[in-house]
Amino acid sequence: MKINDALVGVVLGIFSIAVFLMALSFPAIPGQNFGAGLFPRAIALGMLACSGLLILQGIKNRKTDTPMMVPVWLRDRASVFRFLLIPTSLFFYFAVAEFLGFLITSGLVLLVLFLAFKVRWPIAIAVAVIGSFIIHFMFYSILMVPLPWGLLETMAW
């Protein structure tokens, strides 16, 4: 179901204001010029700008768009499957990442998503493997985010 952009923009605007107000209460980080709420507030401002653009787009298209209509992609089973595969892959990651580890889980998730979106096997495998290692390196080594090693615990560097 497609909802008019103006209505979506209003809901997104309310949500972004709530996020901004909540981020104001985040504590300061000792020794830093900015606190934990800096990025959530920046994202909230970006969402608020997008909500304004959605509202303008909805008002502009109010004569041609109905308030609610079913989009064409919902009639295609493959499109619905691909759409549902995104949140399913997130649930899968959260369910098995501690056991399998980040590298294996993210590689599997990326591979399945690439294949579902019709990426050829060799490219899908290469990008899933290389992408998982790059993402792991960035988060684990550079940003110091603890990622689960799972089955690869003995290989942890």
UniProtKB/TrEMBL annotation:
- Keywords associated with the record: Membrane, Transmembrane, Transmembrane helix
Pfam families attached here?
TctB
Q: Which residues cross the membrane?
A: 6-26, 38-59, 90-116, 123-147
Domain spans labelled DUF1468: 8-148
Q: Which InterPro entries match?
A: DUF1468 (IPR009936)
Name by which UniProt lists this protein: DUF1468 domain-containing protein
The scientific name of the source species is: Pollutimonas nitritireducens
